[in-house]
Write a structure and sequence with these properties.
The chain is an alpha/beta fold and 218 residues long. It is built from eight helices and eight strands; from the N terminus they run E-H-E-H-H-H-E-H-E-H-E-E-E-H-E-H. Bound molecules: zinc ion.
């Protein structure tokens, strides 16, 4: 079974994806993280990718396709042996990427079985993301609402905490706007294909997880 998990920033989709990975052994494809690591590497495209990520703009479909193909083709055979699937987090981000992914999976006789969409109101997204703090020393991510650090601006390691530039309210609003404009058509397509499940993200982590497991029939 191959799953996509989508939701606006702050919806907790990453947490839900990780729970599914831990419990069922999916291969976790977190595209945002993969792209971020490319942006911080000596890849010739690093600066260009960094520019897209920092402005909240979509990384071009063709580049994302190459990255996804690289990952899928490397992992596919071991997953097939273990009868496990992929879980795609925050990817695809456009209908073109959705179709590219379907095409890549088809080459292995696979498909996207379910798209889980975690919903959360815009004010809640802004509230949760504005509370996020990164440690400047060890890189650990805290959240003053959902995962409070030991000191108001201090990490467990003693490092100073900082707020990412793209986590200021205006930047968040801008990213949410882009997210919804791109995601609307994907949800429409998934609904037409009969694979869309919407889940209310304003509940305890465990309750959301249970509903997802039930919806997936796992
Ligand atoms: Zn730290």
């Amino acid at each position: 079974m191959n799953i996509m998990i989508l939701g606006p920033q702050g919806s907790g989709k990453g947490t839900q994806a990780e729970l599914l990975v831990k419990q069922f052994g999916f291969n976790y494809v977190e595209m945002g993280e993969i792209l971020r690591s490319i942006a911080n590497s000596n890849n010739p495209k690093a600066e260009e990718i960094k520019g897209y990520l920092n402005s909240g703009k979509l990384v071009p479909d063709e580049f994302v396709r190459t990255v996804a193909w690289d990952h899928i083709s490397k992992k596919e055979s071991s997953l097939r042996e273990k009868k496990k699937g992929f879980i795609f987090d925050g990817y695809p981000r456009s209908v073109a990427q959705f179709e590219q992914l379907e095409d890549m999976l088809r080459r292995f006789g696979k498909k996207i079985d379910k798209l889980i969409y975690i919903t959360i109101p815009e004010e809640e997204s802004i509230k949760r993301l504005s509370a996020r703090r990164d440690c400047t020393k060890c890189g650990r991510i805290w959240n003053q609402i959902t995962n409070p650090p030991p000191g108001p601006e201090t990490c467990e390691c003693g490092g100073k905490l900082t707020q990412r530039g793209d986590d200021q309210p205006e930047a968040i609003k801008n990213r949410l706007g882009i997210f919804h404009a791109n995601t609307g058509p994907i949800l429409k397509k998934a609904r037409e294909e009969g694979i869309l499940t919407e889940v209310d993200g304003e509940r305890p982590i465990e309750a959301i997880h249970e509903e997802i497991v039930k919806e997936l029939g796992l």
